[in-house]
Task: inverse folding
């Protein structure tokens, strides 16, 4: 039993909550002494020492009852979306600085947490293999994508933006926000990766501003062939942005303690193809990578990394009332977002001190999730009732019902399962999600399925992001498979 997989999390049954309480008390004691250490000669304006506040208590009582309606995102039976418990160091790092609320837009707003953000960024550069370059945290992947395309639009001036049709919805939206009419969605191949022939045909027609490749698409977790896209880059010259919001931290599984790449082996739980794309991440020009997805951090933590320092200059922003310490890093001068929580940088910092993003830290945790996806794929392969939609690149599996030969009747049956095993059901045994693909995508992926009415095709989708899925000899993965085998569709 590896300490890493257990002691860093509250636990599905709140196993480590007492440990967390102890740490939180230490933080509060520290906060007390720290506050008192400033201006010791001033007197307290509070004449009573132990106030009680009934209003807070009353509202908190109601609030906590309301909080119980929240879904059990922490539980391995919840496999619907990219939701996972933040690691304990994340909670502690965030809490410590939330109490004094630094703002990392300018150095003077959060000197300690700005330095932590710089260190976390350095670590992410090392982990992605960019090594040199710059970057910063953002509130999420959409904002990171927006900033990267904004910087590219203003730096390169013109050209078309290319991305596959399973890319995150933010890409089309961002093109509209940035008033970039020339964007083109590229077809997918049967593995949900960008179709390289289609991409090249389009590159021949129109000069590219950016090609955006996915390292973990949102719906299917599919990985684009970055190695081949790099060859196209040599021929057609473009900025390669990799949306690794979801899959970027998976690179930690191929890194030793010194962040050197290790050789491929079957113990990695990814295919040789995915291993090669994880390696190729280092050749991107810019990367979106979200600590709040596979990186164990709570929401509000995305990041964007750039290889070329010159892209900073198109974003340069000054203001007469801030950025007074010009000899220090003022991240807000070079980022789209203004105020950003110093607490978030602290959460990332403490988490990656405890759980470094390499194979013996975060990589071990992610491998455990990848193992669940692999196991589930194998179970579905042997099933009489279901088929895999694809072999998972990462830890997102999609599957569908075997017995139907047309989309319409298939969808009717699969929705019955979804209604029993999703947020739609009152007390679902497991909570899954759907993956809905267009008729064009269906034709590519499932060419033999009849679809006279050209409907979208609906598959069931699981996100095995919680590493607990593989523990105890895949206890929860097996249970999920049993539940799916018994579920009624007629
Ligand atoms: C590949 C990818 N890119 C971008 C995003 C957007 O990230 P966020 O929701 O943090 O804005 C997501 C979210 O799921 C994603 O999976």
Result:
């Amino acid at each position: 039993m590896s300490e890493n997989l257990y002691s860093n999390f509250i636990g599905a049954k709140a196993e480590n909550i007492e440990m967390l309480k102890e740490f939180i008390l230490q933080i509060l004691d520290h906060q007390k002494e720290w506050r008192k250490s400033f201006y010791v000669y001033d007197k307290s304006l509070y004449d009573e020492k132990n106030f009680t506040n009934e209003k807070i208590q009353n509202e908190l009582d109601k609030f906590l009852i309301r909080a119980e309606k929240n879904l059990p995102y922490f539980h391995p039976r919840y496999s619907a979306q990219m939701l996972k418990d933040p690691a304990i160091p994340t909670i502690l790092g965030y809490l410590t600085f939330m109490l004094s609320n630094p703002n990392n837009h300018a150095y003077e707003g959060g000197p300690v947490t700005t330095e932590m953000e710089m260190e976390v960024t350095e670590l992410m550069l090392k982990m992605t293999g960019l090594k040199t370059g710059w970057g910063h945290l953002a509130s999420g992947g959409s904002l990171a994508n927006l900033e990267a395309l904004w910087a590219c639009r203003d730096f390169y001036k013109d050209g078309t933006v290319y991305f596959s049709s399973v890319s995150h919805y933010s890409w089309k939206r961002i093109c509209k926000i940035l008033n970039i009419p020339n964007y083109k969605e590229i077809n997918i191949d049967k593995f949900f990766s960008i179709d390289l022939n289609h991409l090249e045909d389009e590159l021949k027609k129109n000069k590219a501003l950016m090609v955006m490749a996915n390292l973990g698409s949102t719906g299917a977790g599919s990985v684009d062939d970055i190695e081949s896209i790099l060859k196209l880059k040599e021929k057609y010259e473009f900025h390669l942005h990799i949306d690794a919001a979801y899959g970027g931290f998976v690179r930690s599984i191929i890194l030793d303690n010194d962040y050197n790449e290790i050789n491929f082996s079957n113990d990695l739980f990814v295919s040789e193809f995915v291993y090669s794309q994880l390696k190729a991440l280092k050749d991107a020009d810019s990367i979106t990578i979200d600590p709040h997805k596979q990186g164990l951090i709570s929401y509000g933590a995305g990041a964007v990394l750039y290889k070329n320092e010159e892209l900073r200059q198109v974003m340069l922003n000054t203001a007469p009332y801030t950025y007074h310490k010009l000899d220090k890093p003022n991240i807000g001068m070079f980022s789209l977002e203004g105020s950003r929580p110093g607490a978030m940088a602290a959460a990332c910092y403490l988490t990656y001190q405890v759980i470094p993003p390499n194979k013996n830290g975060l990589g071990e945790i992610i491998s455990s999730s990848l193992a669940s996806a692999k196991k589930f794929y194998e179970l579905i392969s042997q099933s009489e009732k279901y088929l895999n939609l694809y072999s998972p690149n990462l830890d997102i599996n999609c599957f569908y019902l075997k017995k139907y030969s047309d989309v319409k009747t298939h969808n009717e049956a699969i929705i019955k399962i979804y209604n029993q095993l999703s947020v739609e059901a009152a007390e679902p045994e497991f909570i899954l999600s759907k993956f809905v693909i267009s008729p064009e995508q269906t034709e590519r992926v499932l060419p033999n399925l009849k679809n006279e009415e050209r409907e979208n095709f609906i598959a069931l989708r699981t996100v095995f992001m919680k590493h607990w899925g593989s523990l105890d000899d895949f206890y929860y993965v097996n249970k999920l498979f049993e539940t799916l085998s018994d579920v009624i569709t007629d």
